[in-house]
Design goal:
Elements (H helix, E strand, L loop, with lengths): L1 H20 E5 L7 H12 L6 E5 L1 H10 L5 H13 L4 H7 L5 H12 L4 H6 L3 E8 L4 E5 L5 H11 L9 E3 L2 E5 L8 H6 L4 E5 L24 H8 L1 H17 L3 E4 L14 H21 L3
Parallel strand pairs: 1-2, 1-7, 2-3, 7-8
Antiparallel strand pairs: 3-4, 3-6, 5-6
Helix pairs in contact: 2-3, 2-12, 4-12
Length: 296
């Protein structure tokens, strides 16, 4: 009974603080990010905004359309345009160096096919940071850009550049890859930036732990980046520890987590429109539940 009382107090405090200084943390996950598309579309429908957003990989891509206030843009890109253009393929990897067509996603989509509202993005008072992994240091960098369009797209491209199946992207003269290598769920970054209460949108169900194993990365892979190889060799361990940390924080009322409620049927490079649409709808429903229970 006493535990329940303290939980109510913590929950009530979180609701009060959500109105002032709550951060939004967006996990990546490749095509699992269509869940996040649904959540963010529900947020936009209800006018739910946050003063600070920190996002990784696919979370960064989807978060940009949220900051620019363009409902369903990310969904259209991830589901409809995937079917039309087939921008995920081994051919892209062999010809263009990335399994996701980088020219289509970071040049033609935002500037022509599915125009990104750069002006609205820049005018939004919220701070948005995107997580990249510096290949030279093996550490996370948290980058933000509101005015320079070329640099903005370079950052989101770098944040989404999956190791092994995407080329290294240069940002500010530094070689960068996917931020999820070292910080897949950057809730600690949000806290450090002055946001003690956070809403975390994840793309795995609670209790998930990776079935993969860490292993030493051979020198013929990223031979010029030894610290990146070290980071990659601990990737699974780091991610599982972050999952555990978030679940503990959730249990103590320190974060509010929005996540899929069933085991994931969508992989990083899924191209099945029916599976993607189901996951999007689940995200939208979970976003609606959040909006019904919390007032910001």
């Amino acid at each position: 009974m006493l535990c329940a009382f303290f939980f109510v107090l913590l929950h009530a405090e979180s609701m009060e603080r959500l109105e002032r200084n709550t951060g939004l943390v967006l996990e990546g996950g490749g095509m699992r990010g269509v869940f996040t598309c649904g959540v963010l579309d529900a947020f936009m429908k209800h006018g739910v905004e946050f003063p600070y957003v920190v996002a990784v990989s696919a979370g960064a891509c989807n978060g940009m359309s949220y900051i620019s206030r363009q409902p369903r843009r990310a969904r259209f890109s991830n589901i409809d345009l995937l079917q039309k253009y087939g921008y995920i393929s081994l051919k892209n990897l062999l010809v263009k160096g990335s399994i996701f067509d980088p020219t289509l996603l970071y040049e033609r989509f935002p500037n022509d096919i599915l125009p990104f509202d750069y002006e609205a993005f820049g005018q939004n008072p919220a701070t948005m940071e995107m997580v990249c992994t510096n290949c030279q240091t093996g550490l996370a960098e948290y980058l933000s850009e509101k005015t320079d369009r070329r640099r903005m797209m370079a950052i989101v491209k770098a944040s989404s550049s999956l190791p092994y199946v995407a080329q290294v992207t240069m940002v500010d003269g530094k070689p960068m890859l996917d931020g999820g290598i070292v910080d897949s769920i950057p809730v600690q970054r949000s806290i450090e930036m002055g946001h003690p209460v956070n809403v975390v949108v994840m793309t795995r169900n609670r209790g998930y732990r990776s079935t993969e194993s860490d292993h030493k990365i051979p020198r013929f892979l990223y031979g010029e980046y030894p610290r990146l190889r070290v980071a990659l060799s601990h990737r699974v361990e780091v991610y599982d520890k972050q999952l555990e940390m978030v679940e503990h924080m959730e249990d103590w009322g320190e974060v509010i987590v929005i996540r899929p409620q069933r085991p994931m049927e969508v992989g990083r490079v899924c191209r099945d429109p029916e599976k993607l649409e189901r996951l999007y709808q689940e995200g939208y429903q979970e976003g609606e539940k959040f909006c019904a229970n919390y007032r910001l």
